[in-house]
Amino acid sequence: MSAGSVPHVELRVWGTDRVLPALGRMATGGPRLRRTPGLRFAKLLGTGSARTFTPRDADPHHWALLTVWDDRAAAAAAAGCPVLRSWSRASHEELRVAMSPVRSRGRWSRQEPFAPVGEAAVGEAPVGTGAVASITRARLRPTRALSFWRAVPPVVEDLTATPGLRLALGIGEAPIGLQGTFSLWDSDAALRAFAHGSAAHRAAVRRTEPERWYAEELFARLAVVDVEGTYEGRTV
Predict the structure, then answer these.
(1) Is residue 14 in some structural domain?
(2) 103, 221 contact by CB (below 8 A)
(3) Is 3 a member of any domain?
């Protein structure tokens, strides 16, 4: 890895009909992944609809892995590692989104997983699709969770109605408190149209600091390099 190199990011989402074995892989996969060469950061995640950020959003049949690598070569070399193979063998579908960070602020488990980020505009990567992704993650303060949950539905309504949205998932390390979103967009313009055009989203952003919803937060925008596979039987 060269000094200051931009990391390579992948999100994999697996669909499986067997919930208990999936829970077992979630429990044991993290320590096994830490030994993988070139891996900077990894989180095994549950998924959901991201409509309320409460346990009723949870989808026990789709599980995700977010990885951040030194570079594409490191990710490619680890594609056949035991953890990934075990998930692939047990799944009836798999979606992989490869990305390059463009902007990131905040921390995740006291780390800055996407730093250093690129300074180039979206679309200037040597290989890219023109699509962009957004990752948000927060650790909610327990005393402020109810206020946060009340603010979520109007934002989600605007999100799902925005043209150019290809996929929106809730992602989380726990059913309550450690939660976030992953969204995939046709273009940076589509993402910005939601971020700046949704009155509910702008209101929620303004409330974040005075309401003190988060004990830790992260917001990242990434250029999409490649998308392959399916989610719920469809390409995205």
Answers:
(1) yes
(2) yes
(3) no
Q: Residue 102 is part of which domain span?
A: 8-229
Residue by residue, DSSP assigns 111-180 as B-TTPSPP-SPTT-SSS--S-EEEEEEEEE-GGGHHHHHHHHHHHHHHHHTSTTEEEEEEEESSSSSEEE
Based on the structure, what is the number of domains in the chain?
A: 1
- The closest alpha carbon to 9, from 113, 85, 104, 111, belongs to 113
Looking at per-residue pLDDT, the higher value among 178 and 23 belongs to: 23
pLDDT, one tens digit per residue, over 203-215 is: 888 888 887 888 8
Cβ(161)–Cβ(125) under 8 Å?
A: no
Distance CA 146, CA 151 (A): 9
Largest CA distance in the chain: 47
Contact between residue 210 and residue 96 where contact means Cβ atoms under 8 Å apart: no
Kindly tell me the burial class for residue 35, based on how many C-beta atoms sit within 10 Å of its own C-beta (0-12, 13-18, 19 or more). Answer: exposed
What pTM value is reported for the model?
Answer: 0.89
pLDDT band, residue 6 (cuts 50/70/90): confident
**Domain containing residue 174: CATH number:** 3.30.70.100
What average pLDDT does range 139-156 have in this prediction?
A: 81
